[in-house]
Design brief:
The protein has a single domain, classed as GHMP Kinase, N-terminal domain (Ribosomal Protein S5, domain 2, 2-Layer Sandwich), CATH 3.30.230. 25% of the residues lie in helices and 34% in strands. Helix 2 crosses helix 3. Strand 2 and strand 3 form a beta hairpin. The chain is an alpha+beta fold.
């Protein structure tokens, strides 16, 4: 399979006919897909489908950030989406996916966590982002990251009277979003760099780099994966591709309002 993919890439093409720097034709973001969540979104990239939901709760802040809200990201890889996934505790792949998504959101300072403080040192809002692929046809990193940010944009606060949260009564107050970070994963196969890899391409990739950036094109997070090393020139090329392709993905989200 690797030799077959490399021979096609040498001709400037991909398994599905795309160019090396092209995302799949169908990329769609749908909001409000989960009725019981405070915010939710579904992202479709070709045949890859990912749903993200946001739940909010009032909790104690961490001791080192007593006046800041809390954000947590988790991803569950079910056999429903890919027969290679197994039910049970989070796998290494699931943990890595959630950490990469978390890092892009956290390091971009997408949420103004200080505005989520209720009583310093006692009560803050906690935001949990749960991500679940419905179908894995490749590139869960970008699809998961996009779904998570879209779900945050869709989120509104539940009613809170100072003592109890009423999840049946939603307000119109949105999360204090300052940035909409976009992640683009660039894979290296031989001498070639590609974006939005199919499952078959992911399996033969030498290395990958997930590039998270803000609307102004500022890098906020990098995550390297794969067993082969990359050179400084490779990283520069992969970052440039990531920053450029993020522009088209960001259009799917619009602004922070």
């Amino acid at each position: 399979m690797r030799n077959h993919i490399l021979s096609i890439l040498d001709k400037g093409m991909r398994l599905d006919g795309r160019k090396k720097d092209e995302y799949r034709d169908v990329i769609k973001v749908e909001y409000g897909v989960a009725g019981l969540a405070e915010g939710s979104a579904k992202v479709t990239m070709g045949k890859t489908e990912v749903v993200a939901g946001v739940k909010m709760e009032v909790m104690e802040p961490f001791s080192d950030t007593p006046n800041e809200g809390v954000i947590m990201v988790g991803e569950e890889l079910l056999p429903l989406s890919n027969p290679e996934f197994e039910a049970g505790p989070p796998s290494v792949e699931a943990i890595e996916l959630s950490r990469v998504v978390d890092r892009g959101i956290r390091e971009s300072h997408a949420l103004d966590l200080k505005q989520m403080c209720i009583t310093p040192g006692e009560k803050v809002w906690g935001v949990s982002i749960d991500i679940c692929p419905i179908n894995d046809a490749g590139n869960l990193f970008d699809a998961s990251a996009l779904a998570a940010v879209a779900a945050l944009k869709n989120t509104v606060f539940p009613s809170y009277d100072g003592k109890k949260v009423d999840y049946k009564k939603m307000t119109t107050k949105k999360l204090p979003l300052k940035e909409l970070p976009i992640s683009v994963t660039v894979c290296k196969i031989g001498k070639h760099f590609i974006v939005d890899p199919l499952s078959e391409e992911q399996k033969v990739a030498d290395a990958r780099l997930t590039v998270a950036s803000t609307e102004k094109g500022m890098l906020c997070a990098l995550q390297k994966g794969g067993i082969e090393p990359v050179t400084l020139e490779d990283i520069k090329c992969m970052v440039d591709i990531g920053l450029e392709k993020a522009k088209s993905l960001r259009k799917l989200l619009g602004g922070t309002k």
